[in-house]
Design brief:
This protein is an alpha/beta fold. It has a single domain, classed as 6-pyruvoyl tetrahydropterin synthase/QueD (Tetrahydropterin Synthase, Chain A), CATH 3.30.479. Helices cover 30% and strands 42% of the residues. The protein contains 4 helices and 7 strands, in the order ββαβααββαββ. The protein has a 7-stranded mixed β-sheet, with helices on both faces. Helix 1 packs antiparallel against helix 4.
Length: 169
């Protein structure tokens, strides 16, 4: 009977998100930007092999699909009206065109720095689902002969609160 083990890789991200509210002085609510420190755990299930297989390709996939796109970026929904204010109109039209083709994440530069533009509200639940889909496809394409499956992703918002996404949940 084959034996399996889990491999979990963690990424720490600094992300800014535009929210419809932000606490300011005197506990008033206002639209604004909020910084987040996320920890993202990516877990794969792999068949035990002797000699062991080099799994470094998994780290490259996780970094490319999450860290390279989103770390130190402002994540913003492409339908947010503020997007028009921070990028030029030609880039904006290109982003709209790409999003209509169902792109999950578009990386761009703006007046406020690095952007990660999404076709959804950038909640931890939506990010977990989108990252899972992108990683699942790449792991499957790069490990068909290794019996490795991308199982789940956890997006930690605080030390005691996370969102978990798996196709089996």
């Amino acid at each position: 009977m084959p034996q399996y083990f889990n491999i979990t890789y963690c990424l720490d991200l600094n992300i800014t998100k535009k929210v419809n509210y932000a606490y300011i002085e005197d506990n008033k609510l206002e639209e604004g930007f909020v910084g987040y420190r996320y920890r993202v755990e990516c877990t794969c299930r792999a068949k035990y092999q002797d000699p062991p297989t080099d799994m470094s390709f998994l780290k490259k996939i996780f970094k490319a699909e999450i860290q390279d796109l989103c770390d130190h970026a402002t994540i913003i929904d492409y339908q947010d009206p503020f997007l028009k204010e921070i990028i030029n109109s030609i880039e904006y039209m290109g982003i709209i065109h790409q999003q209509q083709k169902k792109a999950q994440f578009i990386q761009a530069s703006s007046k406020i720095g690095k952007l990660c533009i999404t076709p959804f509200k950038p909640s931890s639940e939506n990010l977990a689902k989108a990252w899972h889909g992108a990683i699942h496809q790449r792991v499957a394409a790069n490990s068909s002969d290794l019996d490795i499956n991308f199982e789940k992703i956890k997006v930690w918002e605080t030390n005691n609160w996370y969102t978990e996404f798996s196709v089996d949940l």
